[in-house]
Design goal:
The protein is α/β, with parallel strands linked by helices. It has a single domain (40-376), classed as TIM Barrel, CATH 3.20.20. It is built from 15 helices and 12 strands. It has a 5-stranded parallel beta sheet. The chain has a 3-stranded parallel beta sheet with strand order 1-2-3. It has a two-stranded antiparallel ribbon with strand order 5-6. The longest helix is centred in the middle third of the chain and has 15 residues, at 130-144. The chain is globular and about 70 Å long. The model has no long low-confidence stretch (mean pLDDT 91).
Amino acid sequence: MNPVTRRQFFAAAAGVPALAQERLPVEDFQPRSMMAARETSVARARFPVIDVHTHLFGFPRGRGARVTPPEQIAQILAWMEELNIETMVNLTGGVGPDLRRAIVELQEKHKGRFLVATEPSYERIREPGYAAWQAEELGRAKTAGARGLKVLKYLGLSLREQISTGPLVRVDAPRFDPMWEAAGALQLPVFIHTSDPDAFFTPIDRFNERWEELANHPDWSFYGKDYPPKAELLAARNRVIGRHPRTQFVCLHVANHPENLGEVGAWLEKFPNMNVEIGARLGELGRQPRASRQFFERYQDRILFGTDATPNGAQVPQQDLKPAMFRCYFRFLETLDEYFDYSPAPVPPQGRWRIYGIGLPDAILKKVYRDNAKRLLGR
């Protein structure tokens, strides 16, 4: 007779089906909630929306400029009408000819619907006079039509002093000071992404709340090697913000620290020129609805709506630009629904949890959806 475990013996004696006696691989576990929770359908944002964080052209760096084809732009515009999205800001507009092309294809061809940001020219950082040149180049980008400056996590986590070798370039390296200062003088907000979720800086083990995500994408982990600790990266970013009080910074992904809203709030208190955006962080905000509601109430003039969305089918690990994804944001912000998915994906992509809505009042919703972005973008 085949040996059986004590658990299997008693389960069989109690008439438990054989399937229930076996261990289920976690990746196959897709529980259906038994909660009779309210489900509010929010098909369209209550007020017009400016999404300040999308990637329609030129992302990701190092793989050549990605261009969204005209038929896909037409589909995006139709979705925008359906969802009540007034404007999308394409943050990764690139530089030089790529930037000009993005401005022509998006911003000029569809006035009022798309805005385009530029990026630093990191490939020139080793050239003499880079600091002054980059500041001047930002002026040329503004003249061409750029409406902001986007800084990817590439700065701090990938860019090195020598091509592919040498130490990582610090976020607060003095060579970038003229660029930050020029952004303020030109009234170009800086959309900055520094570091990543807390879990990406801890071991990929049974204690990591994003174990499944990191097991599927181990290259997303910044634990070990010569990566700086997350706290060090965020401190460097904050030193930049403190050194350039005339420049408006939009710290993406809730300042990349939604796991600790108290600390983000302390930064907002300390730096009047810091703002935050909520893209791809419903999984954190929605697990702490009372703290999130208080955060939105206190900093209602400095929180911007964003999604980190890319066109459907884009070969980058971001959120697909589809109506269902946007409706998760609308439901979180507009309703008091409980225990619902933060993503339309069958198995939530970040972790096995659900979220709760914060039901913002209309006055705050208007600011978060549109008015704060409109003020920063000079519209």
